[in-house]
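Journal club prep — side note

Before the paper discussion, L.F. wants everyone to see what a predicted structure for a comparable chain looks like in token form. Sequence:
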Amino acid sequence: MAKKSFIPDLGEKIIIPDTSAILTGRIEILSMNCIVPLGVIGEIKHGRMNRVMSHNLNVIKTASPKEEYMALVREASRKTGDLPYLSQTDMEIIAVAKEYFGVVISDDYSLQNVCSEMGIEYHGCGIEAIKESIKWGYLCRGCGAKYESRMESCTICGHRITRYPLRESESRKS
């Protein structure tokens, strides 16, 4: 039985895939209207996809985002609380999508969350995409203290801090 794909027919829209979307084989980078960020190409280092990429680099549309779009991504990811959870390549994917009015294909919820914040269309590849933007809070696993920004350990008891989605009533306070 084939795996379910959550990618709808996107017609002529430009697709900006992340590395995992390409590696699943659900994105046909040679036949679909794709722009592959250079960071994604750099992450594919082994296996069959590396050979496909290496042999077809002259026909694969690639892009490196302009700094102004990277700055917009950093700003939006700070606002959502996702900045510490995004790689440089993740930020490039979002920036290229913004710059070229593309549709991001990724199963990364932090990446999807920033796309949502920035008004960029996105779809999951192997799992269903998030349905609404997530605002994050930070919670001490020891004493239950809540924080607005990320930190490694609780200032009260020293335990580890974890990220959790804020409920609507909590996010309105910010």
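L.F.'s comment for the group: Strands lie at 15-17, 36-37, 62-63, 103-105, 122-123, 136-140, 146-147, 161-165. Keep this in mind when we get to the figures.
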